[in-house]
C-alpha cells in the first residue's frame, strides 16, 4: 500500500518554526564573536574585545528590530488596511506590537550603555567574561519577551502582501453581493482583473482588484468575497467585503442573482441590499440583476449578463456618471476648453531670440 505523505497517521509532524528571536540572536552573537581588537597588551585587548561584543551584539539586534517594523513605520497602513488588520488581528494589535518592539530597542540601548561603563571598572579578563555573559543573558531575555509581537508583525506583513494595494486617492468601484451570484465574472468584464470563476460558493476568499480606464485616471474595481448578510456571525472573508464597501468604495454595484443558481433566495439578497442602504446612506449603490441570459424578471433594475455582455455598456455609463458627474472634465480637457491654443504659423512667425545679458549691456552703452 502506498503511503500518502502529510496525512494523519503518517507519523510525520509539520516542521516547527523557531521564534524570531532565535535567528536575531544567532546573527548578533556571531557578529560579536568576530571582534579582534588591537591593543598594547593583553589586558587592553580583553577590555576592547568586551566592549566590541557589547556594541556589536546590541547594534545588530537593534537593526533587526527596526527591519521587523520598517514596513509599518515607513509606509503606515492606509485606513482601509488598518481596518482589515484591526478586524483580523484585533483592535490596536498593530500599535501595541510596534510599541513593545520600540520599548525593547530602547531598553537594549540602555543596557548596552550600562554594560560598556561597567567594563571600564573590571579587574581582569575573568570579570570581563562574567560581565559579557550577564549582558548576553539580559539581551536575550529582552528579545525573547517580544517574540509574540515580532511574530504578529510578520503575520500582518504577510496578510497585507496577500491583499491588493489600493490607491486611496483613486475612485473605487466595489462589486458585492451573495456568494456565487456572478461578481467575479462581472469584474472580469468591467476591468483588467482576472478573478477565479467557478460554479460553487466562496470562490473568492479575499479581495481582488482590477482597473478600468476613465480617460484621465483609472477606476479601481474590487471583487469582494460573498456576503451572507448574517449579523454578528460573519466570517473573515465577509468582514473584508463589508470593510471594502464601507471603507474605500466610491460606488457599489450590488449583484443580485434571480436565477436561484447561487443557492440563496432572492429575498435574502434583497434584505442585505436594504440593510446596506440604511448603513451607508451617502454611498451610491447600484442594484444589478445578473445572469439575465438565464432568467429575466419584470423589473426596473438594470439586468446584465457577463456571458453575453448584455447591459454592461449601460452599467459602465452609470458607474462613470457617479464617479465623475456629467459635465465634469479632467484638468487637461478643462484647460483646453477654457484656453484654446491659437494657431501659429511657425514659418512666418519666427521665435524672437532673447538677447543675452552681455548684448543688453552693450546696447545700453550705445
Walk me through the structure.
The chain is of the alpha/beta class and 366 residues long. The protein folds into two domains: 20-161, Four Helix Bundle (Hemerythrin (Met), subunit A), CATH 1.20.120.1190; 172-323, 3-Layer(aba) Sandwich (Rossmann fold), CATH 3.40.50.300. It is built from twelve helices and six strands. A six-stranded mixed beta sheet has the order 2-3-1-4-5-6, with helices on both faces. It is rod-shaped.
Please outline what is shown here:
The protein has 366 residues and is of the alpha/beta class. Helices cover 50% and strands 8% of the residues.
Main features:
single chain, 366 residues, alpha/beta, Four Helix Bundle (Hemerythrin (Met), subunit A), Rossmann fold, rod-shaped, disordered C terminus
Q: What would you call the shape?
A: rod-shaped
Can you tell me the CATH superfamily of the largest domain?
P-loop containing nucleotide triphosphate hydrolases
Indicate the radius of gyration in whole angstroms. Answer: 32 Å
Total DSSP E strands: 6
**What is the end-to-end distance?**
109 Å
CATH fold-level assignment of the largest domain:
Rossmann fold
Tell me the major beta sheet: 6 strands, mixed
CATH class term of the largest domain: Alpha Beta
Helix content: 40-55%
| CATH architecture classification of the largest domain | 3-Layer(aba) Sandwich
The class by helix and strand makeup works out as alpha/beta
Overall mean pLDDT = 77
Task: Give the H and E element order.
Answer: HHHHHHEHEEHEHEEHHH
- Tally the helices: 12
What fraction of the residues are assigned to beta strands by DSSP?
Answer: 5-15%
Q: How many discrete domains?
A: 2
